[in-house]
């Protein structure tokens, strides 16, 4: 197993073999999580701090569960009641936490690059749980694991990413990972929800949903990031669903065995038809939630191994 990273800040620094290593270890944790006894001791004696500056349900819960199942001491910081609200800077917060000698720091922050900045100021391993529009690496990794389990591989598939590409860190991390694993990517959505310089992304771009979904293996829907929008990006939710919401008729243009994904939380009747989201024959949305715990266990396991292997003077 080869994984040389000190932190997990994004998909961009990862080599394809490191991605494979992480997915292979995640697969083993899927098996552990399905047993009656789900505990391991690989993080025994280590401290994990979760800092979420943005609201989260799935990501925070799965990181907390992952750490506890691996035997770590897990602390969730209530950032809405922290000294950040009193004017303390992110750097001062990082230095304060660093003095407590944590081993793993999980951070979600609304500003791109904030997690990377924090990682430069602490001695522990830092995991990016989502920073602004930049990246959400563990989401891309759990998506990759879900695809690999459903399709038997994560190479050379036709994958459509649909919806709010411009504001989505999930889309960016998935684009990076899926390109590294030699897949053909299609981006589907209205021009107002495509990022500037889209041609440099190395993906095919479609404005028409049915045309873009033709013969794809995987349909990855995205949430409308309303909290990151400061203007009229769509005429109305009703019109958006009519043109870009996934329903059975639009999905019929994909391959008959195409799977449907969504990172959550879903806006049913806006991004995806509720019946389709619950279709156990096509939807792997609940599988994504399950894979999230296993992937985060694997990521923390691998980072902890590297942390333990580093000389103490490197961490000084």
Strand content: 5-15%
- Net shape: globular
Query: Fraction of residues in helices?
Result: 25-40%
Number of strands: 9
Computed CA radius of gyration, to the nearest angstrom: 20 Å
Structure notes:
The chain has 316 residues and is an alpha/beta fold. The protein has 11 helices and 9 strands. It has helices at 16-33, 58-69, 90-98, 114-119, 137-151, 169-180, 209-213, 237-244, 248-251, 274-277, 285-309, and strands at 47-52, 73-77, 104-109, 125-131, 158-162, 184-188, 204-206, 218-221, 259-261. The strands form 2 sheets. It has a 5-stranded parallel β-sheet with strand order 7-6-5-8-9. Strand 1 (47-52), helix 2 (58-69) and strand 2 form a beta-alpha-beta unit. The relative contact order is 0.16. The mean pLDDT is 92.
Which keywords apply here?
4-stranded parallel sheet; alpha/beta; globular; 316 residues; 11 helices
What's this, in brief?
The chain is built from 11 helices and 9 strands.
How would the blueprint of this fold be written?
Layout: H1 16-33, E1 47-52, H2 58-69, E2 73-77, H3 90-98, E3 104-109, H4 114-119, E4 125-131, H5 137-151, E5 158-162, H6 169-180, E6 184-188, E7 204-206, H7 209-213, E8 218-221, H8 237-244, H9 248-251, E9 259-261, H10 274-277, H11 285-309
Parallel strand pairs: 1-2, 1-3, 3-4, 5-6, 5-8, 6-7, 8-9
């Amino acid at each position: 197993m080869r994984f040389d990273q000190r932190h997990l800040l994004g998909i961009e620094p990862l080599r394809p073999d490191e991605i494979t290593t992480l997915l292979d270890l995640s697969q083993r944790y899927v098996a552990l999580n399905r047993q009656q006894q789900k505990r391991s001791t690989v993080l025994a004696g280590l401290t994990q701090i979760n800092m979420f500056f943005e609201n989260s349900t799935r990501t925070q819960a799965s990181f907390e569960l992952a750490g506890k199942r691996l035997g770590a001491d897990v602390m969730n910081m209530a950032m809405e009641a922290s000294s950040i609200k009193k004017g303390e800077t992110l750097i001062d917060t990082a230095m304060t936490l660093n003095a407590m000698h944590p081993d793993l720091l999980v951070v979600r922050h609304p500003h791109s690059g904030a997690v990377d900045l924090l990682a430069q100021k602490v001695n522990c391993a830092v995991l990016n749980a989502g920073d602004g529009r930049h990246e959400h690496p563990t989401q891309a990794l759990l998506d990759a694991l879900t695809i690999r389990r459903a399709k038997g591989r994560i190479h050379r598939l036709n994958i459509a990413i649909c919806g709010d590409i411009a504001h989505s860190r999930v889309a960016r991390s998935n684009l990076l990972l899926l390109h590294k694993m030699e897949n053909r990517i299609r981006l589907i959505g209205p021009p107002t929800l495509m990022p500037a310089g889209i041609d440099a992304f190395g993906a095919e771009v479609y404005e028409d949903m049915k045309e873009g979904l033709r013969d794809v293996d995987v349909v990855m829907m995205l949430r409308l990031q309303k909290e990151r929008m400061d203007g009229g990006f769509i005429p109305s939710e009703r019109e958006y669903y009519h043109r870009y919401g996934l329903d059975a008729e639009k999905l019929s243009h994909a391959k008959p065995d195409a799977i449907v994904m969504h990172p959550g939380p879903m806006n049913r009747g806006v991004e995806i038809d509720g019946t389709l989201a619950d279709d156990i024959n096509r939807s792997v949305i609940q599988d994504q939630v399950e894979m999230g715990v296993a992937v985060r266990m694997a990521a923390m396991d691998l980072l902890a191994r590297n942390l333990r292997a580093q000389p103490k003077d490197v961490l000084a």
